[in-house]
Design goal:
Chains A, B: It catalyses: L-isoleucine + 2-oxoglutarate = (S)-3-methyl-2-oxopentanoate + L-glutamate; L-leucine + 2-oxoglutarate = 4-methyl-2-oxopentanoate + L-glutamate; L-valine + 2-oxoglutarate = 3-methyl-2-oxobutanoate + L-glutamate. The structure is a homodimer of 351-residue chains. With 351 residues, the first copy, chain A, is α+β, with helices and mostly antiparallel strands. Chain A contains 7 helices and 20 strands. The two termini of chain A are 18 Å apart.
């Protein structure tokens, strides 16, 4: 691995005062190029612009995938990344579906270790804050021909992630737009899935909602994801979530919360969740919680669900009563090293 | 419009000897930037690389759309673009669905007129060859946050398009993978649609086919598109094609061929075409032709169709008998200015 350090670090403490996610990049980025069927030696260099032709295939045909994970610092200034092995595995699953080369472990995992270690002063210590890690790969061949690219770039970016204020949001259940098709790319963390979701989300916002709960594209009868997150529903004291499938992202936070829920003795069911079942539960006063979960925000509780023409308010429970809050607390306590990590989820960075 | 001409043209006659599509770019490109809710003045400059940060949102969330059209030169060195108004209209429909700003007519249409005129020596004269025009727009804001970008770039690239050798291809009818969902982005010419199609196409190639005929994502019972083209089927002497929908691109070549077919007195039906109907026709010896149509190749005839486990050969008819050949000839004669253009499809470039 080639390491070209920045001449002078841009870091200063005011970085951690920012409230903006995804805009405050650290000193370095990692870049590896794929050409002629192989990856070149990855290079860590100062973060900044590179030269790309506007004919780079990613701009035209969208072969682009990414991952998101976080690094945390404990009281002893030790830095940990949460479950990077899961993101590595999913990244290469996405790569396969998008017909892109896989990224070898020594580039992905060692690359992330090295760059996070190099920029470790950028990892904040405050509970709720973290350093966001964004591995991405996109097509760079200079060609406007609708076929797979022969050249790709793998990049790792790091950006400060401020504490996310968990304001409850409202969600509209999709009854027209869809996020993914049977036989499509819904399970892959690919660029096109996100682009396709922005307009329907904006339309939901015009109707007074913050986000969309995506449903199956065939009949809109079963819920699949919420915004860019997995979605969980609590009916009575039962926690429900859809099984992962070719249409649903296999979320790391989803998996972690389900593990914690089961090990806490919660009643968990992983099965298709019908919109009608949610509506009936709402009418019976049994729709206790609906929340999204993902790396960026951990958990986002919803205080209203839009069923067709009916807006159903959901009372936000106290931190002691709310499954979302209980699970979020348990997860973050592990992430921040405040409790034991019986699952081996924390991976230490550097020595 | 700012025009910064190349110091010395890269053009030489050997450009027209190339057999490669989408790699031979002309002297110039047009670039316009969108920021703070408005487009800046478009600039024509020498074609080449620009600086982009790897955090540019197009690489992560795929807000990217494009168009494809062609310029032709007649014997009098007059240059014409084929139906650019249709591409302009579709470009902005794609922009809306992808939650991107629309591009004003004076940037899109005048921009294309100006750059094609400037690079008119790159427009070839040989029948079958042309200059390919690629308008594209993608998200450039430096942010890794899953939301719509606030900054975009509109670019027009020009590349020599060699004569396409119309080798018949074989196609497999999709029975697992899908191109687009109801409520999705299939009708938009957006980057993600292409990326999602490459792996299924490669899988079809492993089965001995060149391309995929996409079917509805619900039951795979009705055909929708072929490869990256619209698809037409001739059963007996009837020409069939699926109606455009939110899942199917509203192709300019498709529309032009349908117009020519109707005006030639062909029996044309625009309605859902069932896979079973095609199979039954094949068994009855009535499946005369299946072909894709699009700007890049005009028409691509298929000599075999894969129905589930059965590979159905289709005899390629003579140019006199083949609807595909007849329609292709009529269309190209208009494009190359060999016959009258009663439809007003040709738009002259410059004086």
């Amino acid at each position: 691995m080639i390491i070209e350090k920045i001449a002078e670090s841009k870091f200063n403490d005011s970085v951690f005062d920012s409230k903006v996610f995804g805009k405050n990049f650290t000193d370095h980025m990692l870049v590896a190029k794929y050409k002629d069927g192989k990856w070149d030696e990855p290079k860590i260099m100062p973060y900044g612009a590179l030269e790309f032709t506007p004919a780079a295939m990613a701009f035209h045909y969208g072969q682009a995938i990414f991952e998101g994970m976080k690094a945390y610092k404990n009281e002893n200034d030790e830095v940990f990344i949460f479950r990077p092995d899961r993101n590595f595995e999913r990244f290469n699953l996405s790569a396969e579906r998008l017909n892109m080369p896989t990224v070898p472990e020594e580039i992905f995992m060692e690359g992330i270790q090295t760059i996070v270690d190099l920029d470790r002063q950028w990892v904040p210590k405050n509970y709720g804050t973290s350093l966001y890690i964004r591995p991405t790969m996109f097509a760079t061949e200079e060609a406007i021909s609708a076929r797979s690219s022969n050249e790709f770039m793998f990049v790792v970016l790091l950006a400060y992630a401020p504490a996310y204020y968990d304001k409850p949001l409202s969600v509209k259940i999709a009854d027209f737009y869809s996020r993914s098709a049977q036989g499509g790319v819904g399970f892959a963390k690919c660029a096109g899935n996100y682009a396709a979701s922005f307009y329907p989300t904006q339309e939901a916002q015009k109707d007074g909602y913050d986000q969309v709960i995506w449903t199956d594209s065939i009949e809109h009868k079963y819920i699949e994801e919420a915004g860019t997150m997995n979605v969980m529903v609590r009916i009575g004291d039962k926690l429900l979530t859809a099984p992962t499938s070719e249409r649903i992202l296999n979320g790391v936070t989803r998996d972690s919360l389900l593990t914690l829920a089961k090990d806490s003795g919660m009643d968990v069911e992983i099965r298709p969740v019908a919109v009608q079942e949610m509506y009936d539960a709402y009418k019976d006063g049994q729709l206790k919680e609906v929340f999204g979960c993902g790396t960026a925000v951990v958990v986002n509780s919803y205080n209203a669900v839009g069923f067709a023409e009916e807006r159903a308010p959901i009372e936000i429970l106290s931190d002691e009563e709310s499954f979302a809050s209980i699970l979020k607390g348990k997860l973050r306590d592990i992430q921040y090293g405040l409790v034991e990590d019986p699952y081996g989820w924390r991976v230490k960075v550097g020595k």
